[in-house]
Structure formats: C-alpha cells, structure tokens
Design goal:
Blueprint: E1 2-8, H1 14-24, E2 37-42, H2 58-70, E3 75-80, H3 88-94, H4 97-104, E4 107-110, E5 115-119, E6 128-132, H5 133-137, E7 140-144, E8 146-150, E9 154-156, H6 158-161, H7 168-177, H8 179-189, E10 194-204, E11 212-222, H9 225-235, H10 244-251, E12 262-266, H11 269-272, E13 289-293, H12 298-314, H13 316-324, E14 327-331, E15 345-349, E16 361-363, H14 370-380
Parallel strand pairs: 1-12, 2-3, 2-7, 3-4, 7-10, 8-10, 13-14, 14-15, 15-16
Antiparallel strand pairs: 1-11, 5-6, 8-9, 10-11
Helix pairs in contact: 1-2, 2-4, 7-8, 8-10, 12-14
C-alpha cells in the first residue's frame, strides 16, 4: 500500500499545510537524512505567475525548502529546466525565485545546462538520453508539480514534471520518439523520492500554459509518483486508467494507480473532488488554413490547435499566409487527402505522416511540439525560426 496525504491549504498557511502533509507521511526525516544534498524540482515551464496555474506556487517551494533545512540537509537546491523557447534563469528572475532562494538558504540550478548522456535501463523507447547531472547526483529529489491538464498528455503531474530534468534537446527527443512512453522511460532512470503536488491553484482546459486557473486550495503529498498522480487525477475528476502515461507507468511497475492500493490521509476525495475541464480538440482552423485530419491522437490535435492559436494571436500567422498562401496541415493516419493532391503549401505532421515527408514539409514529433510546428511554418514561409536546429533532427 502507498500512502498519500491530502491537506487543505490557504495562501497564508501554506507552511503549516506542507508540514502537516509531510507529518502524515512519517515526517521529512524519513526521506531527508542529516547532511543530504536535496534538489527541489518545481514546474517552471515558463515565466507565468503561479496564479495562472501554469507554474508552481513559490510559497509551496519555500515551505518545502525550510522543512528540508530543518531536517539537517547540507545543501538545498531549487532547480528546473524551463520549456523549449524559454530561458530558465529569466524565469527564476521573473517569478522571484532568486529572492526566494536567498530567504531559505538555497541555490538555484538551471537543469537545462548541466546535462550528461545516460543509458536508460529497461527503456522501451529510450536507449539513452541527456539528463541533468544535478538531478542524478542529488541524494533526494523532491518533485513539486502543479495539478493541471495538458493538451499532449491529458494531465501534467509528477511523472510529466520529471521532463524538466532534460535539456531542450532531450525534451524535443521525447516528443519525436513518443512523449508518453518516453516520460515513463525517463522515470525509470530518474527517481522522485518525495512528491508534494501544488494544488493551491491548478489549471484546466488548454494546459499546461493556456488553460484557466482553478483555485483548489490543496496540497497532495506521497512517496510514490504513480500513487500521487492517480490521486490527483481523481481529485480532478479524471479516471487515471484513461490517462495513457498513468497506465504505462503502472504497467512498468513504477507504482499503483488503483484506489484499493492507496491509503489516503487527511481530506476525503468526496469532499474535495473538483472535476477539471479537459483540453478541447474540436477547434476551427484559421481562414486560409485547411486541416486534413486522419486518425490522430489528442496530442497532435492539441498541439496543432495551440500552435495556430499562438501564431494568430502574435500576428505571425498573417505574415506566414502572405508568403505561403493557402496552408494545408495533414496529421494522423489515413488522412483524407484528395487523389489530385493538395494545392498550396502543405505540412505533414508527426510520426503518422513520416512516409509523406517528400510531398511537402514534414514536422517530426509524437506528438509534435507546438514550438516545432510554429517554426516549421516560419521556415516554410522563409521567416526567421526561433529554434534553429529543429529541422535537422530526425529521430526514428
């Protein structure tokens, strides 16, 4: 049996709620020995304030850091590797993590910048991958995700948050070879010893950054990634067995997702469950953009939707359309392409369309990442790209 603590929290009593949750698990000394080197790993995907539900509440991280210091840790590190297209150091500064680190005697580490290539024992898709040396060498890795939905993986919780230990090249690689199984393979290599999930403010809908905030007022803690994530799913009104990464992780022996194998302490699910709005995949394309959708997973559908939305909002899509004219986006298996072919510029998306790479611009990924798709459109239109090596990578 795995134990998971659920505690209600308000912004003014976060320290108390975190300590209460850790006490439910037997106290922090059960996980952090005197003299230990501890890495606290929040979700700092981008420089969006925690009130949006995109990033971890810094007050939760600070409470954990003080607890770790009280437990006698020799070194407290706070680290993450922000998402592709974002600079971790700038995210630290914008979200005032530099000030936070000073207050609690911690050091900040950009996990995008200290990668070492490592084999992945037992990996299904990954044979090796570049991983942060800091994450590998820490005596204790404390995983502090946010409860939020995700257009590519349904939810973003502790299993998904582990992806932040990869440099940008590793993050792209997971998208190219298969995101969900890649996350599971990564979690075989990198172990989270303690999870303290930030449910102060979550995010629903088009997460992990474009959704709507949800004021949950919860802390969810446990020693097992799958058990904590399964509990978070149930809080969010999502059956964990319907989330592919959860099912794959449980099948891989990383932990239980069955409620019968998880002991809950603190709040009961019936009192605090709040169903989250899931990502929407039924979107209308922009004028001048035609979609040819075959049998596609929600990951590619969601990323295509987000990429077009972001480009439209930034005004770039208009410039791209002026250059390319009519744009066709083809994704999924058995896409309904006319026998006469397609007129205008065509993008073929993801592994499902790899065989069509000679017909137009092929965009690798499984699912394709929205930043890569955005760059593919810029590149096709002869405009500057933001990730200059994306089209040189071809992961089988």
């Amino acid at each position: 049996m795995q134990t998971v603590s659920i505690r209600k929290v308000r912004q003014e009593n976060i320290d108390h709620a975190v300590r209460q949750a850790l006490s439910d698990l037997g106290g922090l000394s059960k996980f952090v020995a005197s003299g230990a080197h501890v890495l606290i790993k929040p979700n700092l995907i981008c420089a969006r304030d925690h009130t949006t539900g995109s990033t971890t509440n810094p007050a939760v991280v600070e409470a954990i850091a003080h607890c770790v210091r009280d437990a006698g840790a020799a070194e407290v590190l706070i680290g993450d590797g922000s998402g592709v297209g974002h600079d971790t150091r700038r995210v630290f500064q914008t979200l005032k993590y530099d000030e936070l680190a000073c207050r609690c005697g911690a050091s900040l580490v950009d996990l995008n910048r200290d990668a070492v290539e490592m084999p992945c024992p037992g990996g299904t898709l990954l044979q090796s991958i570049s991983v942060s040396r800091t994450a590998l060498e820490a005596d204790v890795l404390m995983n502090v995700p946010v409860l939020k939905t995700h257009t590519g993986t349904v939810v973003s919780l502790s299993l998904k948050n582990t992806k932040g230990v990869l440099p940008h090249s590793g993050k792209r690689k997971l998208h190219f070879i298969g995101l969900e199984q890649g996350i599971v393979d990564l979690n075989r290599l990198v172990t989270s010893h303690l999870i303290v999930a930030d449910g102060t403010i979550g995010q629903e809908g088009q997460g992990p950054v474009a959704g709507e905030p949800v004021a949950l007022g919860l802390i969810v803690a446990g020693a097992n990634r799958v058990a904590v994530d399964a509990t978070c799913c149930r809080i969010m009104g999502i059956r964990p067995e319907t989330v592919p990464v959860m099912h794959l992780a449980s099948e891989a022996g990383l932990g239980p997702m069955s409620a019968k194998e998880i002991t809950l302490l603190g709040e009961t699910l019936s009192r605090i469950r709040r169903p989250f709005v899931l990502p929407r995949y039924d979107f209308s394309p922009c004028e001048g953009v035609q979609l040819f959708a075959g049998t596609a997973c929600s990951g590619c559908v969601g990323q295509v939707a987000l990429a077009l939305r972001e480009l439209r909002l930034s005004g770039e899509l208009e410039s791209i359309q002026k250059s390319l004219g009519h744009i066709n986006v083809v994704y999924g298996t058995n896409a309904p392409i006319p026998d006469a072919g397609l007129e205008g510029a065509s993008l073929y998306i993801g592994k499902c369309q790899r065989e069509a790479r000679d017909r137009g611009s092929w965009v690798p990924g499984c699912p394709v990442h929205l930043t890569i798709l955005e760059d593919a459109l810029r590149h096709a239109a002869g405009l500057p790209v933001k990730n200059t090596t994306w089209f040189e990578v071809d992961y089988e």
